[in-house]
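Lab notebook page, bench 4
Experiment: in silico fold of construct C2
Operator: M.H.
Input chain length: 148 residues
Purpose: comparison with the prior construct
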Amino acid sequence: MSNAEVVNPAQLAKVSKLFEMLDDPGRLRLLQGGEQRRHSAGSVICREGEKGDEFYVVISGRLKVQADDFGNAKDIAALGPGAFFGEMAVVGNQPRSATVTVEQDAELLAFGRAIVEEILRDYPTVRTALGKIGVKRAEDLMQKLSGS
């Protein structure tokens, strides 16, 4: 069974900004290039500082995002269905900026660097939008860590 059969691209576009930015053929290509994964509560999806070769879209469940705040883990976000994370590590070839842990059993779609680069090459406006999202997330992270 393909991801397009498990997850309706049109439905995903309604809940995920990333998929909303793509047209139907782009959504289908991205979905077909993804890998569906199930994770149990307590699983760590990615760790701050690690190299990031995949980004993720949350299909179901709940995840916690934490960043290092001078040696202490600080909660900076909660993610649910439709949210995506890890894109800046993949797109910008940067280390992970946060640790993401599953709080409630989750189903994710994972997308590797190759399919992401292929889609972004064909949809330059999505690359631009992801860059803006990344800048906003970095600013938000700095603000949360500074306590402002």
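Observations: The mean pLDDT is 83. The first strand starts at residue 35 and ends at 39.
Next step: discuss at group meeting.
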